[in-house]
Structures are given as structure tokens and as C-alpha cells.
Design goal:
homodimer, 74% helix, Arc Repressor Mutant, subunit A, Tetracycline Repressor, domain 2, mainly alpha, 2 domains, 211 residues, DNA-binding
DNA sequence: TTGCAATTTGACCAAGTGGTCAAAACAACG
DNA sequence: CGTTGTTTTGACCACTTGGTCAAATTGCAA
């Protein structure tokens, strides 16, 4: 062929291609995640990503046409998983249980996917140039919807009164802190302490939320 | 002279020099804070810092010998102010009042010095290459000391039982969140909401801490 | 005013950057 | 085997980056 990778629909997520294409693209995203999470978009270099992925730079650019394409692909994948736990919150469930489960799930994500958390944090810290629309659109709507649910619970007397939006901020801040500030946590504690964090957050939010 | 800026003690903080030296150095730090906070160390460029400070690049390098020198100076200034509020926590005071005042103060710092908060966040996110020793040394000791105080309060029955270290993480995470994730907060809320945050945190920590 | 130190700058450099391209190497399949 | 399309690479390019330097300009005290 003419040297350009043949993708049926260039704009769409790249789930197509040969076995090699899938493997290499996965390796690139994996490496990109590591590098972007640590250095941010501007701080990351194609050379480092290529090295980390075990490819030469031109070879990397054969699979993704630019640095930004890799970054965008990562952010897109990320956001789907990121918003998911909040969607899982069940308006029919027991309020405190539902919220504690959400906290727990977010904390587990910080433990299991710290790079994703840091990638997100870096994007926000630098002003969210890429994902501001999503924040103002999808995320905002989701928060509003959840806020209504929580307000309902409070009105029914099944939850202690709280500002639902700031409550969500509290949950995000505290759970993501264990991924984003991992270095600091380890420095202060002398090592990671997932169980301690889980117990602490469970206790805290129980006291806050129980009527 | 020979073109090198004359500083009595090159390693020491630069409080010496002519009026112009003080002004320009302050302008550089100011600009550096803005740029480093937004882009991180690797993402920041001397050109942008110089531009923001209204200097040419060589002129900037006349006052600070390298990019890292500016960054280091900023981090050093930052850390002093950063640790200060925790030092102000009075072991003799009323436990809940003391801790709520600490929360409040940290929140005010996020409002008044958001760039400092983001600079710190960026440094930690990229693995704290510059300040890890401080975290493992001074910060850790300070936390240990404070943990003893809090444990004492709990033992005396003047505070509901909490893990003091994770409590500090909770406070840091939630207060700094309003600076570091400012973009997200605005996107979700449609604007900043310091008073709302202050009320929420006050309420939350009251519920957590009161016996 | 004059002289000297402090300050500022334009020109420059080596290294690193994102990205291109033609050609080579490889895989697959008849 | 040969052919055809896929994958990989070395060489290369324009641009940015952190940093240098000698020379020009400015501030200031005697």
C-alpha cells in the first residue's frame, strides 16, 4: 500500500485492524498512559513513549498520526470508565449503602488505576484544554441528576442533610488523593495503606451521611 | 563587572541586591509561579516565563542561572508557607475548634493562592523529584507530631475517634481540591463557590469530629 | 560630567522536539 | 517460490528549547 495505515473510519475508535495492529496500538496506549500521567501532555515526549512501548518513533507514528492522537485516545477511554461508577449509583437503593459503595469503588479505582487518575489530574491542572466540553456537558448533567437523587434522599429523611455537589467533590477529592498524591502518602506513612484509607473513608462518610 | 550578577552567598536565598534586582527577581518568581503551576516543570518554557515577566530570556537568565533555579526558589518559598498552618494547630486549644480552623485556613489558602497549590500538585504528580526529601523528613515529622496531639484528644474523649494521618489527608485533599481542580468545580457548578465549600467542609468535619 | 558597575540585548549554539519519507524488511498466501 | 500488502526503519527536516556571550545600554555615585 501507500504506507498509510488502512483504517476504515479514521475518526472512529480504532478497534479494527490486524492482530499486530491491535497489539501495537495497545502497547502504545499503555506506554502513553505511563508517560502522560507522569509528565503531562507538554512534558511527555514521543521518544519516551516509543521507548516505553518498545517501538521506534516513526513506527509509533505509523499507528497514531500524532502525539495528540495518542493523548486524545487515552482521554476518551478514560472518561468512559471515569463517569461509570457514578452512573451505577442506584436511586432505588439504600442511600448510605449506595454512597459508601460509590466511595469504595472510587477508592479501588485509585488503587488499581492510579495512572488514569493522574492523567486526569494533569489534564485538569493544565486547564482541561481537551476535556472542558465534557466537564461542562456530560459530567455536569450527570452531577445534576445525581444531586436530585441525593436531595430526594435527604428530603425523605434517609440521609443527613448535605450539599450534594460538594459531597461529590469531597468523595472525588479524597479517593483520587490516594492515587494523585501517592508519593506524599507513602512519604508520610512510610508505605501505602489502602485498608487504612478504606476504613477511614468508610467511617467518615458513615458519620456524615447517617441520619 | 564581568557580567555575572554579584551575590554574596550564591547558595542562600536571594534577599540581597539592588532595588532593580529585587523587583526583577520578584517579577520572575511571579511569572514562574503562573507558568510552572499550569504546565509543570517540563512543560514550562523559559521564553514563556520571560515573556510573562516582561523580560528577554537572556535577561531572565541574568537573574536566575537556570530554569531549575527558578523552580527551586519557588518550591522553597512554597514549602514554608505550606507547612505553616499545620504548625499553628494549638495542642492546648479546643480540639474541634482547632481542626475546623485549620480546615478553614487551608481552604482560604486554596482560594488565595491557587497557583501555589497547583505548583505543589504538579510536583507531586510527577513523582516529587525535587521535594521528596522534605516530604519524608520535615513533613513526616510534623504529621507524626500532630498525630500524637490528635490521638491525645481522642483518648481524652474530646474528639470522636479517627485515624489522625488519614484525617490530615482528608483535609488536604478536600481543601486543595478547590484550587487544583478549580476548572472542574467551575464546570460542574457553573462558577466558583467558596462560601458553599466552606459551609460544606465545616458541616462535614463537625459531624466527623464532634464526640 | 565622567567613569564604572549593573543591566539588557541580539546573535548564536547544541540538543531535543514532533513529524515526514522513501526504502527496506517482513508476513501471508496463492 | 513470487507477489502483494503490512510493518519497520534510518535519514532527515523545521522548529523549539535551555543556555552562552560579547557588546551595547543604562543607572548612579563622585
Amino acid at each position: 500500500m501507500d504506507g498509510k495505515l488502512a483504517t476504515p473510519r479514521p475518526g472512529e475508535p480504532k478497534r479494527t485492524g490486524t492482530r499486530i495492529q491491535k497489539e501495537k496500538r495497545a502497547a502504545i496506549l499503555e506506554a502513553g498512559l505511563t508517560v502522560f500521567a507522569e509528565a503531562g501532555f507538554r512534558g511527555a515526549t514521543l521518544d519516551r513513549i516509543a521507548g516505553e512501548a518498545g517501538l521506534s518513533k516513526p513506527n509509533l507514528l505509523y499507528y497514531y498520526p500524532s502525539k495528540e492522537a495518542i493523548y486524545d485516545a487515552l482521554l476518551r477511554d478514560l472518561l468512559a470508565n471515569w463517569l461509570d461508577p457514578l452512573k451505577c449509583l442506584d436511586p432505588e437503593g439504600e442511600p448510605v449503602t449506595e454512597l459508601l459503595a460509590y466511595v469504595r469503588r472510587k477508592l479501588e479505582m485509585s488503587r488499581d488505576f492510579p495512572r488514569e487518575s493522574r492523567l486526569f489530574a494533569n489534564e485538569i491542572l493544565s486547564g482541561a484544554p481537551e476535556i472542558l466540553p465534557v466537564l461542562e456537558g456530560e459530567l455536569r448533567e450527570l452531577v445534576e441528576k445525581t444531586a436530585l437523587v441525593i436531595d430526594g434522599w435527604v428530603a425523605d429523611g434517609r440521609l443527613a442533610p448535605v450539599d450534594p455537589r460538594h459531597l461529590l467533590f469531597s468523595i472525588w477529592a479524597q479517593t483520587q488523593h490516594y492515587a494523585d498524591f501517592d508519593v506524599q502518602v507513602r512519604a508520610v506513612l512510610g508505605g501505602p495503606d489502602f485498608d487504612g484509607a478504606a476504613r477511614h473513608l468508610d467511617l467518615m462518610f458513615r458519620r456524615i451521611l447517617e441520619v
